[in-house]
Design goal:
Length: 565
């Protein structure tokens, strides 16, 4: 044991989740050490779908240009049967969170950009050829024993001391095993051969899911002229067939004019899993991404679910490390992420069952799809991707005054403002992700809202300054939290609001509602003040006169620790 390194957060694994967590923590100026057992990043075929929630996190990391060049926006997906007939088209047009609902991407290239992004931070250190071998937890830190195996030198054991450890090292996570938690779920017996090809021989964009009873397949157009195929292997076909050129030629014969002329980048056999850990936290040790949950690839949500984990966890770790919240805040990471991760696992398993239907079931499926496509509401359910469970937190760092305190003014007024069929419980925005339209400010026009508000907490009021709704003591709490105060107004009122509020003792960001999106959002919900978390979820929403009491409730929910004066 010949070296000790102190860091705030030790991240195990330099995959996309670990690198994203390190970028977010680096942006919050936290000390981070990333250790990776391999000598370099993984370069074989993996994820291909990046959703709007994840791209919003990319925006928070400040890597939109770097990662965006490896993506194809508006990745349309078509489910086709064995005859090539389109059963379902998935083409969501919304950009409510500021980005296309789906984008195709090349994961090895995106992972490299995530790694390069860490060069911006003096507080982040990445170490390859560092294999985690043991963890020992103390009252205020964790000691990690790692084996260092550098090129041209003997391996050595080193101890790294961190305040927190986050295991992001994949489905075979040492960290999860050390925690002693289960990893329950299903591992379907089917295996899939994934083939990535350069110089795309088809040249068509988007995705085709081939629900062909003879052999289900996937064909995906990716950036940089890359084409991916995935073919289901039958039980009698060994994985070694992946290295047999004649077998691959037979698979591809129905999909490309000349299989012999393909420039194969790589091929690999995968088995799909649907599993989730019994707990995402044990004291100062946490897990994220595939270490916490595994899911089939059908809807491209494995990569994105891991990014959601990192986004949820980064601001909570930062709050604790800054002394703004007690460690109890970290319990909400498991509370908030577990149900949605399980919902995505279940959805992907269901999608896999549809893809693998045998001949008789496939005929029933095709007939049902033909009928549903005649019903506009049913068709739009799939076209607009409304089947995808959106994260909605009803526990954790959320305070719903209309839902949890019957009889309060907010509930009574809500019922008078909305039709009885739209009860407040159904319309509450609390626990959902806030929209991100383009807005105008004194610094520019057509700006994305997150870039205006910054990467931390925001208290926003429609048509008024939040500073006018809070007491001096409350404003001191806001200052300690580091929250941004924002006033949302119609664009035609922006000049007036800037004059009225910008020079106030407490800084207020005036946001002009350029296209009416913000007003429409408030029109549909009986609230006037929002408390937005750093991950852009609504922690609380209330009427203007309830802002002070709601602030205290939010601070309590996040285990806020105020410094003594």
């Amino acid at each position: 044991m010949n070296s000790t390194v102190d860091t705030d957060v030790l991240v195990i694994g330099a995959g996309p989740v670990g690198l994203t967590l390190a970028n977010l923590l680096g942006g919050y100026k936290q000390r981070v050490t990333v250790v990776e057992a391999r000598g370099e990043l993984i370069d074989y075929p993996r994820g291909v779908g990046l959703d709007d929630e994840s791209f919003r996190t990319v925006q928070t990391m400040g890597l939109v240009d770097e990662i965006g060049r490896h993506t194809v926006p508006h990745h349309i997906m078509r489910l086709v049967n064995g005859k090539g007939q389109v059963l379902v088209t998935n083409d969501p047009a919304t950009e409510e969170f500021g980005w296309p609902r789906k984008s195709g991407f090349v994961q090895p290239l995106v992972d490299r950009e995530l790694l390069a992004g860490l060069d911006r931070f003096d507080t982040v250190d990445v170490r390859f050829r560092h294999q985690l071998e043991d963890l020992t937890e103390a009252d205020d830190h964790v000691v990690a024993t790692v084996r260092v195996d550098g090129p041209g030198e003997d391996s050595a054991l080193r101890r790294l001391k961190a305040r927190y450890v986050v295991g992001c090292e994949g489905g075979r996570s040492f960290t999860r095993n050390w925690m002693g938690v289960g990893f329950e779920g299903k591992s379907p017996s089917t295996r899939w051969l994934v083939i990535d090809v350069d110089n795309d021989p088809l040249g068509t964009p988007n995705v085709y899911l081939g629900a062909d009873p003879k052999r289900p397949y996937v064909s995906i157009g990716l950036p940089h002229a890359i084409r991916r195929w995935e073919f289901m292997l039958f039980d009698h076909e060994p994985a070694e067939l992946a290295d047999d050129p004649s077998f691959m030629a037979r698979l591809l014969a129905d999909h490309v004019p000349d299989p012999s002329r393909l420039d194969v980048i790589g091929q690999r056999v995968f088995t799909h899993h649907g599993r989730i850990a019994g707990s995402f936290r044990k004291g100062r040790v946490l897990i994220a991404g595939d270490a916490a949950h595994l899911m089939p690839v059908w809807l491209g949500q494995g990569w994105n679910s891991g990014i959601r984990d990192a986004t949820n966890l980064a601001w909570k770790l930062t709050s604790v490390l800054r002394g703004q919240a007690s460690p109890a805040l970290l319990d909400t990471y498991d509370v908030e992420r577990r149900n949605h991760a399980q919902a995505m696992i279940d959805l992907n398993l269901t999608a896999g069952s549809i893809m693998k239907s045998h001949r008789r079931a496939a005929a029933v499926r095709d007939a049902a799809a033909a009928v549903l496509n005649l019903v506009p509401s049913a068709k739009s359910y799939f076209t607009d991707m409304r089947f995808k469970p959106m994260p909605r937190y009803d526990r954790g760092v959320v305070v719903d005054v209309t839902r949890r305190t019957p009889g309060r003014a907010a509930e009574r007024i809500a019922r008078s403002l909305l039709p009885i069929v739209d009860a407040p419980d159904d319309r509450s925005p609390v626990g959902t992700q806030f929209i991100q339209p383009r807005v105008n400010t004194q610094d520019g026009t057509g700006l994305l809202l997150d870039d205006v508000l910054g990467p931390w907490w925001t208290i926003a009021a429609w048509g008024n300054s939040p500073a006018r709704l809070l007491s001096p003591d409350d404003l001191e709490r806001v200052r300690e939290l580091g929250a941004t105060l924002a006033c949302f107004v119609p664009e035609r009122q922006r000049a007036w609001a800037e004059k009225e509020y910008t020079d106030a003792p407490v800084p207020v960001v005036v946001v002009g509602d350029a296209d009416g999106s913000l007003k429409r959002w408030f029109d549909d919900r009986p609230v006037g003040v929002l408390f937005l978390r750093p991950d852009r979820f609504v922690a609380a929403a209330c009427l203007a006169q309830e802002a002070d009491a709601t602030l205290i409730s939010v601070l309590t929910a996040m285990s806020f620790t105020q410094r003594e004066v």
